[in-house]
Amino acid sequence: MTERLRTGIDVLDRKLDGGIPEGSVVALAAQPASQAELFLYELTATRGTLYLSLDRSGDFVAASIDTADASTGDPTVRDIAGEAPLDNAAKLVSALPDDSNLIVDPVDVLERQEATRYRNFLNELQNHIYNTGSIALLHCLDGHDVPPLRDTTEHMADIVFELETSVKGDRIENHLAVPKFRGGRALSDVIKLELSDEVDIDTSRDIA
Q: Has residue 205 got a pLDDT over 60?
């Protein structure tokens, strides 16, 4: 039986029967203005993590993790710069050790590269994550300008998380759906989450 690896988010781990199957690639789709980064930061607390930043500087990401109120780890943060982001990311991914986390934040930059080369990158990523018993989390910005290769990302991912953030009355509500889960059972129910200092279940009651 495939081992389940914790995400560091208790409510999600319970819903997923202990966590994410080792060797999985996860796509987390979320709006740019959401608090989706809390998912990424809390994942770093579970095991050694390589954090690839494709827009913010590595120093800025590391400082954000250090000052987060949530429980976090001490990831290795690298920013991917230059004119060959796929090549630069692939080199770092190929050196990922066993039993690790890989975070790509956001994957949008890679999704805007040439289609065949991006598919090759995802195939090599999947093979390495599977062979090392690791987890990869691809942060997908679900904003006004979604890259044309987003369908490819979600098709090739083993698991898809969809985080929807909306304003309802005087509250901000966050709902997490898991429509795709290879090697397990997709969740039939949407999880209502509280995203403030950390990721937790929202126990508030809706008022009609």
A: no
pLDDT in tens, 6-60: 999 888 999 999 999 999 999 999 999 999 999 999 999 999 999 999 999 999 9
**How many domains would you assign to the chain?**
1
Per-residue confidence (pLDDT) for residue 187, from 0 to 100:
84
For 35, the domain range is: 4-201
Instruction: Report if residue 111 sits inside a domain.
Output: yes
Q: Which whole number is the average pLDDT over 171-179?
A: 92
Q: In terms of residues, how long is the chain?
A: 208
Closest by CA position to 159, among listed 23, 44, 47: 23
Average pLDDT, the chain: 92
Instruction: Name the residue with higher pLDDT: 152 or 189.
Output: 152
Domain with residue 143: its CATH number is: 3.40.50.300
Task: Point out the least confidently predicted range of 174-178, 186-190, 192-196, 199-203.
Answer: 199-203
